[in-house]
Amino acid sequence: MQVKELVSYLNHIAPFTYQESYDNSGLLVGDPNMEIKGVLVALDCIETVIDEAILHGANVVLTHHPIIFKGLKRITGANYVERTVLKAIKNDISLIAIHTNLDNVHFGVNHIISEKLGLTDVKILSPKAATCYKLAVFAPQTHADLLREAMAKAGAGMIGSYDSCSFSSEGEGRFRR
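Above: the chain sequence. Below: its structure as tokens.
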């Protein structure tokens, strides 16, 4: 698997468009076409995490918190962020973060924490705007239920705490050739 395939998968489960404006999720350092030898997962990306990746032969570090929040003006090793990025680059290690986009999905980090705490009636307090899209499809009446079920199984129709949301209407189509 290549790094870009892992990034694509992460985007599928927690779309990067769900991240907050201040965040910096996604591939932060590395070649998207690099073959993955191993992935080390951590909460934060710090020098010792890169050391551990090197020790275990992992060439991808996937963290929740991004090591780079703002643009770096220089990479001289003057602070832990610069040292961590330098060490990753020198050792051909890609850095990926999946932060607030994972916080903003219905079954992400906050859902799991709530579950572990035994909380009920949980919901995202400030859901991201414009994360729903309208999809119009046309299908024979005989296949409408199968289509609705397949779309719901793929994640369509989730609005708040509801799932399998859909609207159906019959109509008569026209066209001119």
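The mean pLDDT is 91.
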